[in-house]
Amino acid sequence: LLPLAALVAAVAVLCGCERSGQPGIRLKADPEHFPTLKTVNVDSYVSDSSYTRYRITSPLWLMFEEAREPHWNFPKGLYAVRYDNAMNENGSFTADSATYFSKKKLWRFDSNVRIINISGDKFLTQQLFWDQQAEKLYCDSFIHIERADRIIEGYGFESNQQMTEYQIFHPTGAFPSSDFGAAGQ
Fold this sequence. Notes:
With 185 residues, the chain is mainly beta. The chain has one helix and eleven strands.
């Protein structure tokens, strides 16, 4: 009976249980470096008005909600597919890593950022920001855009959330897509 009582007491201490006002084990972790939630192999659907709008997948999602600047981190990449009302794909997005600053409602996507909008236009850049409150996407880095009729390149970019109305601040070239043969395919 004594060994069983010792085992129960040890399990209670190891689990950090608190009983009758006695403190359990408390762990101190640096909220800047230790996530409050870790999720692996994320596969999530986002719906709006009873329609599935997006499928989001990521190998790793870390939430740092107790950090000075609360954020979510997707260090191994993020992939999203957009759907129309009939569940046909009508856009996609991928980045090698992503960070969402939850208080600011601001996304930062880094390295090999690739977007295909509803019109089939392709956007490639190394860094992109999405300000959800301002409902715009932007970057200061190089951007390459492949449209059906032309390829546009430059530095600095701003767009609406649908990536259908946009401007490049410092264009370096606009070329007819016929100059590149089967560009965009």
